[in-house]
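Checklist before submission:
- one chain only
- standard amino acids only
- sequence pasted in full

Submission:
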Amino acid sequence: MTTLKSKLQEDLNAAIRERDELRSSTLRLTLTAITKEEVAGKEKRELSDDEVLKVITKEAKKRREAADAFEQGGRAESAEREKAEGELLATYLPKQLSDAELNEIVAQAVQEARAAGAEGPRAMGAVMKIVNPKVAGLAEGGRVAAVVKQLLAG
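Returned file contents:
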């Protein structure tokens, strides 16, 4: 069974052979981040595919944030590069939920939380507790929180 990490490694080797600079540098940086995570604890260990996905998610998020920062700084070329790297990494992640799908999941969670008696500011935490396991890896935290706030505000 191929692990996600070995798939990244294979794709990196292919990108190097094809002289695909964007893919090879992005995958190299991502594999470095994975290795760093593997040696972060007391003992070196192999990351599970879920843990590797978390690293890829973090790396993709960094690229999106950097792209925004470059855009605001008027550095369109750098922003494009970061965006391209982010999109490349996104291909390794589970497909993100659409706004409609996310709204539906959150709306159900809001009903559940209210049924359980969650009201006011405390409702946010209650709703997030229900929503997070359902959307883990499929929607970014900030996006989820925004929808929860919006639906709680009614």
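Reviewer check: DSSP finds seven helices and no strands in the chain.
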